[in-house]
From TrEMBL:
<dbReference type="Pfam" id="PF00583">
    <property type="entry name" value="Acetyltransf_1"/>
</dbReference>
<feature type="domain" description="N-acetyltransferase">
    <location>
        <begin position="14"/>
        <end position="191"/>
    </location>
</feature>
<keyword id="KW-0808">Transferase</keyword>
<dbReference type="GO" id="GO:0016747">
    <property type="term" value="F:acyltransferase activity, transferring groups other than amino-acyl groups"/>
</dbReference>
<keyword id="KW-0012">Acyltransferase</keyword>
<protein>
    <recommendedName>
        <fullName>N-acetyltransferase domain-containing protein</fullName>
    </recommendedName>
</protein>
<dbReference type="InterPro" id="IPR016181">
    <property type="entry name" value="Acyl_CoA_acyltransferase"/>
</dbReference>
<comment type="similarity">
    <text>Belongs to the acetyltransferase family.</text>
</comment>
<dbReference type="InterPro" id="IPR000182">
    <property type="entry name" value="GNAT_dom"/>
</dbReference>
<dbReference type="InterPro" id="IPR052810">
    <property type="entry name" value="Plant_NAT"/>
</dbReference>
Length: 414
C-alpha cells in the first residue's frame, strides 16, 4: 500500500488468472525474453516458443497456463495492468512403481495421477515479491481439483532460487537427478555400422513393445499410444544385429518379443523443432569466430570427422530421443548405432542438436554420444505429494522411493 502526496491511496494488486491467447501473447513473450536462462553478461539460453506460449504443454492430456497480472488500485480505480509472470502445468497418469503378477514372473505397473510444473517465469523487475510462490500455489489448487496425487518439477541443479522456492517454501523434496545429454549435429553424416539393422516400427508395434517391456519403468505414461501417434513423433526404431533380421523380415512385435534376438535396442524420436527453437546468447566474438571455424573445417574435410560446433548463436531446432531401452550384451553398441541414426535424421531436418534425458543409473547411457559442454550431468527433479490415493497402496509414498535404473522421459514435457 502506498499513500501519495495528494492523500490518495494506491494498492498494488497481483491477480493470478488463466492465460488468454487472444490478448496475452505479446506480454507473455516479452516476459519470456527478459527471463533468459543464465546470469547477465554470460552465456544464456533463450527459448523461442514460435508464437505459441502453450506449446510445451498442449500435447499433454490435460494442461493449463496461468499468468500473474499486476495493477495499481488507486482509490478504487484500476491503472496500468501488466503481466509480470506465468506458469504452465499438465496432468497425466504414469507408472510410480511395480508389483509382481499372479504368476510371479512379469512385473505389473502401478499407476498414479501425476502433475508437472514447467515454464515458471517472473519478470526480473518483479522478483522477491512472492509472485512465483503465488503462481505455484494457484497451479497446485488446479492439480488437486483434477485429482492429481503428486506434483513434480525439473530445474537446473545450480538454480538456487528455483530450488529454494520449491523445497523451502512449497514443500517439494529432491527426488531424481537425471542427465541431459546433448550432441551437436555435424556437417557430415555419422557412419552406422553395416553389421546393425535399424527397423522403423509401425505405431501399433511400437506401442506393444513399450507396454510389454517398459510399462513398469518409472514415469512411463499410460497413454503411450497418444505419444507414439502424435504428429511430432518421427518414429520408433529398433536396432538388431544384421544376422538376426533385415527390415523386410520384421515379424511383428508379438513374434519379436516371443523369441527376441540375444541383443536389441530401441528408441523413439520427437521433433521439438516444430514446437520451439533455442538460441545461445552472450557469446564473445572470439568464441563465435572459433565455432564458425570448426564448421568450415568440418564441411571442407568431412572424412576427418572433425568436432564442430553447430550454429548455436542463432535460433536452432532439436530432436529428442526418448524411450531408450534394450537387452543383451550388445545393447550399448546397438544404442550407439541408434543414436547415430537419430543424428542423421536430425541433420536431414536441419536441427542443431540431438538430445536425450536418462537416469543417472541408466546402463545404456554408455552408448549415447554427447558433448559434456553442451550437456547437463545432473538435472534435478523435485516432487511433492498433494494428497489423495489414486495409486496402489503397495507402493507407499512415491516421494520416499529409491531411484531405479531407468526413467521414461515424456517428450511432451521436455
Amino acid at each position: 500500500m502506498v499513500v501519495a502526496d495528494s492523500g490518495a491511496v494506491e494498492v498494488v494488486v497481483v491477480e493470478v488468472r488463466e492465460f488468454d491467447p487472444e490478448r496475452d501473447c505479446s506480454e507473455v513473450e516479452d516476459v519470456e525474453r527478459r527471463c533468459e536462462v543464465g546470469p547477465g553478461g554470460k552465456l544464456s539460453l533463450f527459448t523461442d516458443l514460435l508464437g505459441d506460449p502453450i506449446c510445451r504443454v498442449r500435447h499433454s492430456p490435460t494442461y493449463l497456463m496461468l499468468v500473474a497480472e499486476m495493477f495499481v488500485d488507486k482509490d478504487g480505480d484500476e491503472e496500468e495492468r501488466k503481466i509480470v509472470g506465468m506458469i504452465r502445468g499438465c496432468i497425466k497418469t504414469v507408472t510410480c512403481g511395480k508389483k509382481l503378477s499372479r504368476n510371479g514372473k512379469n512385473p505389473l505397473p502401478i499407476y498414479t495421477k501425476l502433475a508437472y510444473i514447467l515454464g515458471l517465469r517472473v519478470s526480473p523487475s518483479h522478483r522477491r515479491m512472492k509472485i512465483g510462490l503465488k503462481l505455484v500455489k494457484k497451479m497446485e489448487e488446479w492439480f488437486r481439483e483434477n485429482d492429481a496425487e503428486y506434483s513434480y518439477i525439473a530445474t537446473e541443479n545450480d538454480n538456487q532460487a528455483s530450488v529454494k522456492l520449491f523445497t523451502d517454501k512449497c514443500g517439494y523434496s529432491k527426488f531424481r537427478t537425471p542427465s541431459i545429454l546433448v550432441q551437436p549435429v555435424f556437417a557430415h553424416r555419422v557412419r552406422v555400422s553395416s553389421r546393425v539393422t535399424i527397423i522403423k516400427l509401425p505405431a501399433s508395434d511400437a506401442e506393444s513393445l513399450y507396454r510389454r517391456r517398459f510399462s513398469s519403468t518409472e514415469f512411463f505414461p499410460r497413454d503411450i499410444d497418444s505419444v507414439l501417434k502424435n504428429r511430432l513423433n518421427l518414429g520408433t526404431f529398433v536396432a538388431v544385429s544384421s544376422e538376426s533380421y533385415c527390415a523386410e523380415s520384421w515379424p511383428g512385435a508379438d513374434m519379436f518379443l516371443a523369441d527376441p534376438p540375444e541383443s536389441w535396442a530401441v528408441l523413439s524420436v520427437w521433433n521439438c523443432k516444430d514446437v520451439f527453437k533455442l538460441e545461445v546468447r552472450g557469446a564473445s566474438l572470439v568464441r563465435k569466430g572459433f565455432c564458425k571455424t570448426t564448421r568450415i573445417m568440418d564441411r571442407a574435410f568431412p572424412w576427418l570427422h572433425l568436432p564442430s560446433v553447430p550454429g548455436l548463436f542463432r535460433p536452432f531446432g532439436l530432436h529428442l530421443m526418448y524411450g531408450l531401452g534394450g537387452e543383451g550384451p550388445m545393447a550399448v553398441k546397438l544404442t550407439k548405432a541408434l543414436c547415430g541414426f537419430a543424428h542423421n535424421l536430425a541433420k536431414e531436418h536441419g536441427c542443431g542438436v540431438v538430445a536425450t534425458e536418462v537416469s543417472s543409473l541408466e546402463p545404456l547411457r554408455l552408448g549415447i554420444p554427447h558433448w559434456k559442454k553442451l550437456s547437463c550431468s545432473e538435472d534435478l527433479w523435485c516432487i511433492k505429494r498433494l494428497g489423495g490415493g489414486s495409486s496402489d497402496g503397495s507402493v507407499g509414498d512415491w516421494t520416499n522411493s529409491p531411484p531405479g535404473l531407468s526413467i521414461f522421459v515424456d517428450p511432451r514435457e521436455f
